[in-house]
């Protein structure tokens, strides 16, 4: 069976898969040699480091911090009221953000299959998933993850309120305040690679990570569809604030990015397209390939851990051939 061309002029293979022409790329910060022009284009360009996703997550964090976070004076003691406020805020944030991606891409199918990696839509009447439905299953497990994220956040807020955590604010150290915000994606990528390799250890994969990998054809809600043990490991990136001087805004930004980012990386599309023309590139082929092959691309594009440790797949036909050869020889 030969390749076919779909209604958007995209070439799909016999499995119905489409891949963009460009290969998976890492952030140029680790390229050598690099140039100031390449770094500036990466940092200020669109898409780039700051826009759209870093800026969007930071903006949502600031709004949540200023308008939807209880007063710290209430957090000195662990009380149901303010803890439920944080949980409700987080459930609404994830529901609106991930839900909006799902509505546009899958419910309304606003761009059809344009820039969609897999031609198929989420599974229905599939006994592998709770409620026999992939989306319902994914929403359920995602909300369990929000509860666990909120538990981490509650305990850290309690620590800040009782002055038990290392603290640094904008007035005291403006350089560190801004630098720590900019470093957050690199910390998250490093942490994610480490815990992701851990849960691919066969005993943990069979008992924990298998649940996430039911989603071969991913959608926005697939990103946080994990076993509770995996949620706890995934959100343990927040524990960095127990040792690194931070402001609560840093902690919230870390949590918001960790909770919302999976909706983007698991959307199943390479770009968001509006009106057939306006396009926001996401370039999340790297993680789609992990769900496709399981044993490649454990990390993300900020820190090239996969390249350093030999688990990188760049999406090319040459990398496909190398993967098949390794699997045949194993």
Written overview of the protein:
This protein is mainly α and 330 residues long. It has one domain. The protein contains eleven helices and four strands; from the N terminus they run E-E-H-H-H-H-H-H-H-H-E-E-H-H-H. The strands form two sheets. The chain has a two-stranded antiparallel sheet with strand order 1-2. Strands 3-4 form a two-stranded antiparallel ribbon. Helix 3 packs parallel to helix 8. The radius of gyration is 20 Å and the shape is globular. The chain starts with a strand and ends with a helix.
Distance between the termini: 27 Å
C-alpha Rg (nearest Å): 20 Å
User: What's the number of extended β-strand segments?
Assistant: 4
Domain module tally: 1
Number of continuous helical runs: 11
- The sequence of SSEs as H and E is EEHHHHHHHHEEHHH
State mean pLDDT (0 to 100 scale).
93
Structural class: mainly alpha
Anisotropy-based shape = globular
- Report strand order across the widest sheet: 1-2
Biggest pleated sheet: 2 strands, antiparallel
Beta-strand content estimate: under 5%
Low-confidence stretches: none
């Amino acid at each position: 069976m030969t390749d076919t061309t779909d209604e958007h002029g995209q070439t799909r293979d016999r499995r119905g898969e489409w891949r963009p022409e460009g290969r998976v790329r890492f952030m140029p910060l680790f390229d050598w040699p690099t140039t100031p022009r390449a770094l500036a284009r990466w940092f200020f360009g669109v898409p780039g480091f700051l826009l759209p996703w870093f800026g969007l997550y930071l903006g949502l964090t600031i709004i949540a911090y200023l308008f939807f976070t209880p007063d710290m004076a209430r957090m000195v003691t662990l009380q149901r009221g303010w803890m439920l406020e944080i949980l409700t805020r987080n459930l609404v944030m994830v529901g609106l953000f991930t839900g909006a991606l799902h509505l546009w891409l899958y419910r309304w199918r606003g761009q059809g299959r344009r820039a969609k990696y897999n031609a198929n839509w989420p599974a229905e009447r599939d006994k592998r998933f709770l409620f026999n439905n992939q989306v319902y299953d994914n929403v359920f497990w995602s909300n369990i993850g929000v509860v666990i994220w909120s538990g981490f956040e509650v305990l850290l807020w309690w620590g800040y309120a009782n002055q038990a955590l290392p603290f640094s604010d904008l007035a005291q150290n403006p350089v560190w305040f801004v630098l720590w915000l900019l470093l957050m994606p690199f910390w998250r990528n490093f942490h994610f690679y480490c815990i992701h390799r851990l849960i691919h250890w066969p005993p943990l994969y069979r008992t924990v990570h298998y649940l996430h990998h039911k989603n071969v054809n991913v959608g926005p809600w697939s990103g946080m569809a994990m076993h509770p043990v995996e949620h706890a490991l995934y959100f343990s990136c927040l524990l960095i604030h127990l040792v690194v001087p931070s402001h609560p805004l840093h902690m919230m930004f870390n949590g918001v990015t960790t909770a919302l980012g999976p909706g983007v990386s698991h959307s199943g599309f390479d770009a968001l397209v509006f009106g057939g023309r306006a396009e926001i590139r996401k370039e999340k082929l790297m993680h789609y390939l992990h769900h496709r092959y399981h044993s490649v691309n454990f990390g993300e594009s900020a820190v090239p851990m996969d390249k350093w440790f030999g688990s990188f797949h760049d999406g090319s036909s040459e990398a496909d051939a190398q993967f098949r050869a390794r699997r045949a020889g194993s």
